[in-house]
């Protein structure tokens, strides 16, 4: 939520910051702004709307500036408006701050500043409190003032700060929200995420919690909370700028849908050795460790939660260990039964989702062992986990998650199979069969993507709908949830997913002439049952888009339209079944003229409760 950027160097600060913000717009896009130090005074330009609106605002303005900060916002405190946009300044206007996160005690601090310093505020934001606080402590040394302000601030924040009187420095702090520093040839950078830096450098410092960074044109120094200098290794980013570009696709979402064969292959190959044994490089999870575990929780939010449902299926089916799955926002408050015999698995693309992170902390505090499945290297979830199982999806920019999800599914299968191999709970033949089915998925995904034009045609017929139902059985239930979420988040159609067997217990009352239902029947084991469910809703007049494996043609007798996925083992069909639903959601949203990569009210990384 929110993206921050900062630059200090020889280049044109305005240009560099605005280009950096464009790369972070996925994090929030209701307003944006920049603050530049121009010859000893701070110039701020900000407005409600997209970064394109900011660009219009500053178009033609020339700033003689080599140090500045920028922000793209997802509103928390105060509605999106020009005045609530960041950066925020103190009353004197000599300090400017950009902030990602939340200052929990901002009401208290506002009062304290009013009572003690007669401070007046322009905006409703918590961020302005930071600028005012640093302002009252500032007497010519920005580092000092930032340290003093931190003593009073409670909450989660990554901030970038500049001072009019000190054009040769920029200060940044990380506390529970992401912050990276880019090390360039002609200057240094701060950013909430790596894509904002890639145009200039692939060498970065991953900043840890409670660290304060002092940046100059030529130097970056990191300090801990006791103000001692700390060393940091340079992290070389493996992917380049092109990986974070659209590469000819109309939208990041479509590009990322098409990257799934590669992401799945990469995630598999990094974990399989030449004998198809699962390698846990960097993870020390032994048979003895597993024997100690008597409870597994998989906890996540949104799409990652849907992947967790498949994790439950995989671990229970292969390793025969009971698993509970929960959404993180519920798990944290329900006083779950956790002790040192608990394995807690956190699943998260960004590794920054606050609810997931807090659930993890709760579990850790009570002694659980923490394994995380994460896409973003070095993110908060990875730092606080005992072990990390990376999804090698590459950068996911579209707000709607696609390739992160399919790679999460692969990790779920691998974790289940690894535990099964340790426990010897499945035969070698069955293990080899599932691995061989997983290894065939990249090729099958390529083939499946060829049905995009057919799915586009279906979307063209259906995009004006007001509501859609998704039904399925077995692992298709989780895929129905995911298909429904994908559709509603980017097309704003009211969609609803339910286990097909549950229909009769209430929801079937909504079936009438022409009700649109997407019915997933990809499980051989449950195929006949699904055909009966389709028959039941057809009898009430529903219009059915069916999905089945390509050998299971009888669905054509029931469904109005059929999408086929390549034949595969029931166990792994999830990875294929979700893809047509992603494509369907994409084209429905496209025909409706929606902003696909940046759906309204959403942001890629949800760092608030
Ligand atoms: C939907 C989507 C969200 C995320 C959720 C968790 O397409 O992307 O539902 O899955 O916000 O985010 P992460 O995985 O970053 O923890």
Describe the protein's architecture and organization.
- It is a single chain.
- This protein is an alpha/beta fold.
- The protein has three domains: 3-241, Aminohydrolase, N-terminal nucleophile (Ntn) domain (Glutamine Phosphoribosylpyrophosphate, subunit 1, domain 1, 4-Layer Sandwich), CATH 3.60.20.10; 255-439, Glucose-6-phosphate isomerase like protein, domain 1 (Rossmann fold), CATH 3.40.50; 448-591, 3-Layer(aba) Sandwich (Rossmann fold).
- It is 36% helix and 23% strand.
- The protein has 19 helices and 25 strands.
- The strands form four sheets. The protein has an eight-stranded antiparallel sheet with strand order 3-2-4-1-10-9-11-15, with helices on one face. A seven-stranded antiparallel sheet has the order 5-6-7-8-12-13-14. Strands 17-16-18-19-20 form a five-stranded parallel sheet, sandwiched between helices.
- Strand 19 (369-374), helix 12 (380-383) and strand 20 (387-390) form a beta-alpha-beta unit.
- Helix 3 packs parallel to helix 4 (127-137), helix 4 packs across helix 5 and helix 9 (302-319) packs parallel to helix 13.
- The mean pLDDT is 95.
- The chain binds fructose -6-phosphate.
